[in-house]
Fold this sequence. Notes:
The protein is mainly α.
Amino acid sequence: MNKGIKEPIRKKWIWIGLVIIVLGNVPWYFSDSMVEPYIIGFPFWAFIILVFSVILCAYLSWICLTQWKIVEDEEESEK
């Protein structure tokens, strides 16, 4: 019965990917001189944060859609 159930919390690669994306989302690795370059009207560090935020949203959505199979799906199909 529980053969088809997948819980992503038990997969280490998901957590590793999440930590890498979150660390990339924090601008701690930029120097003070990185404020000057502008890309599409944003400072470079803000553009990088925006890109990593979109990557984080896409990654979490992908995990929820493909890596998570819970019991409710089976219970709904039985009704």
